[in-house]
Amino acid sequence: MLRTRLATAMVLAGSLLMMASVGLISSVTADWEQLNGIHGLRRMTVNADHAAASSNSAKMMLLEARQLEMKWSPLPVAYTAAEQSIVKAGQRSVSCDVVGVSGNYREFAQVRLTAGTSITEPAVAGRSKVAVVSSQAASQLFGTERVVGKTIELYNNPFIIIGVFDVSDSLLSQMSDNGVPDVLTPVTALIDVDAKAKITTALLAAKPDAAVRGEADVKQALAAIGKDATQFRIENGELVHEQIAQYKSLLLFTYGITAIVLMARLIAWQWTTVRRALQGALETYDWGDALHSERSRLLKHALLAAGMAVCAASLWLSIRFRLYVPPDWLPDELIDMTFYANKLRSLWQQQVSLAGYVPAPQELLSSAAGKLACILFAAGLLFGLPLYLLGVRLWAMAHVPLLAQLQRLLACIPVVVFAAFAAARWMEVATGSNCGTLRCRAPCFLLPSFIFTLKRRVDYHAEYRLQNIDRCLPYGVLIDCDGMPEPKRQSVRRFEGSGR
């Protein structure tokens, strides 16, 4: 009894982990896309690398940023200058992340306004001393979020608040330190009041062939304005998204392959059953009579095998995908230990060089999304799948009847689906992201468990018949000889031929 309950708990926990891992990866990627504005992850991020250059050579002047914008035309470009500063409002002062932005900034970052307006192109062109503050900064400075029209002091200059935006409280945003500044101002106004402010980040809408030539095009544009591309770190949002999003595809592929392997084993068992039945019939009849006597059994097993083959083929079509591997990770020869050793050494050197690097908010979001997706992938693959397979195996070891196994599985489905729907709803309310993928695919994750249960039940049934053949003979029970050793089959035929 205790073993049965433990097995049921393992199946339930494993199913929850499997479903949650895939669904939450989908939710993380959807939230990540929304936090990157209208263009989503179809953008190129160019960020100054202070660790690889002097303090000023890796930054851009306002004129150079505008030249880059013209060079990248007609696609939009946004550029920012970030500073840490004390913002004052009366007797209160707060240390804030102040970011000067261009007019296209909202196309590359999610700014959810709760009041007022955002920074516009006319405000940037007119060098207007206006600001858009976060709701958290507004509460700290004024004790309320109704601050539109009030004045804050920034670098000893008054700035009029024209808008208030809400900061996302999702786990992804918290892991990336929000990835959102506290105060937004026109980049021109920030440069006017702070002589040390320089443009450090440029966001460029990706071209149609960005997956192939994105980084090369950005380097060419930087060279055209007289900047050294080695002094900047370039992130291709489309490729980063493809690498992180394939964690979900890998999990679905693993679950699907598990189900396909179990289906193949069931098909092989069907073939073995048919072969043994024909061998037994051929000892008494010729081919024609043997096929005629076993026609119903042959038809049943053939239909079952064909149905499972169709299911396996359909499942394969739904789970297959193209695995993306960065080109710099592909050696000229498959077995090249020198290449992999040099690659690991370069990764270590890269981590050391990042010690003095200040990533852009978009890079912080990408890093946080990658870490979350990796954790969820490990949870589903290393804990979810083995846990529920072990639970089903424990059911077979405890000789739980097939009907009882199906009843427990059917009882687990509503619990798992309800938990998934509740998690999806919570994620939508908390982050505003779309968890539709988790909802529509939720029931599919229990397919391997049904197949594995069926296979274990078949094995248990065959073992039971072998163990109880001698007890069944005295009572004249009709015994199926499929799967029995030759001595057992002969004893059954002698018994049936005796007429008892």
Automatic annotation (TrEMBL):
Ranges that cross the membrane: 250-268, 302-319, 375-396, 408-427
Top-level taxon: Bacteria
Keyword line: Membrane, Transmembrane, Transmembrane helix
Pfam family, one: MacB_PCD
MacB-like periplasmic core domain segment(s): 18-210
Xref: PANTHER family: ABC TRANSPORTER PERMEASE YTRF, MEMBRANE COMPONENT OF TRANSPORTER-RELATED
Protein's name according to its UniProt entry: MacB-like periplasmic core domain-containing protein
Organism of origin: Gordoniibacillus kamchatkensis
